[in-house]
Write a structure and sequence with these properties.
By secondary structure, the chain is an alpha/beta fold. About 50% of the residues lie in helices and about 15% in strands. It folds into 2 domains: about 140 residues, Response regulator (Rossmann fold, 3-Layer(aba) Sandwich), CATH 3.40.50; about 80 residues, Orthogonal Bundle (Arc Repressor Mutant, subunit A), CATH 1.10.10.10.
């Protein structure tokens, strides 16, 4: 993949670049602040060479707040086909809600701790670049623990487990393997989840919409 990377920490930026290259990808541009990221993507678009994936930190200069997230949102609105993977130091519900509600896929939100788990990180890159959605498992657990008074409450413990794994971007067979159940059982649980969350068969991207209910108010 051709990747644009935004990270203000020199050490982490160089480490990420090295890791991405070891995984077989090419970092075509880097940015150290949010405006630089927006400019890098705009330049790539002008040259008809949009990246396959943009990776950005949430907290970036110039304000060192949610500048990286806002840059990601701006990129999605200007170049809607560009997959975005956001990295964060901590769980932040509002950040994830804003990003993941923008489109029905090609977005991801990972805690930086996940980078050290190379296989998880590599899978996240591939899933988002392919148009999927990835939400960090820690984010999912955090939201499950605090959500009350929502349709999520109607799910059984097993259905919550399945929805958690869906949020991590796993396909049915992978979910079945992890839970040590049959693929048919997983399909049944997912059907129950869609029914309880009132997601009808004619609605596209039901897996993503089910996950996004975590972030509804």
């Amino acid at each position: 993949m051709r990747i644009i990377l935004a990270e203000d920490s020199t050490l982490l930026r160089e480490s990420l670049t090295s890791l991405l290259e070891k995984l077989g990808h090419t970092v075509i541009a880097t940015a150290t602040d949010a405006p630089g990221l927006v400019d890098a993507v705009a330049l790539a678009a002008h040259e008809n060479r949009l990246p396959d994936l943009v990776i950005t930190d949430v907290r970036m200069p110039p304000n060192n707040q949610d500048d990286g997230l806002r840059a990601a949102l701006q990129i999605r609105r200007s170049h809607g086909t560009v997959p975005i993977l956001v990295l964060s130091q901590y769980v932040a519900d509002a950040y994830a809600a804003q990003l993941l509600s923008e489109n029905d896929g090609a977005v991801g939100y990972l805690l930086k701790d996940r980078i050290g788990r190379i296989s998880d990180f590599s899978r996240a890159l591939e899933t988002v670049a392919a148009g999927g959605t990835i939400i960090d498992p820690e984010m999912v657990r955090h939201l499950l623990a605090r959500k009350t008074g929502s349709p999520i409450d109607s799910l059984t413990p097993r259905e919550r487990e399945v929805l958690t794994l869906m949020a991590e971007g796993l396909a049915n067979q992978a979910i079945a393997s992890q839970l040590v159940v049959s693929a048919a059982a997983v399909a049944k649980h997912i059907g129950n989840i869609f029914t309880k969350l009132d997601l009808t068969p004619d609605e596209g991207h039901r897996r993503v919409k089910a996950v996004l209910l975590y972030f509804s108010t």
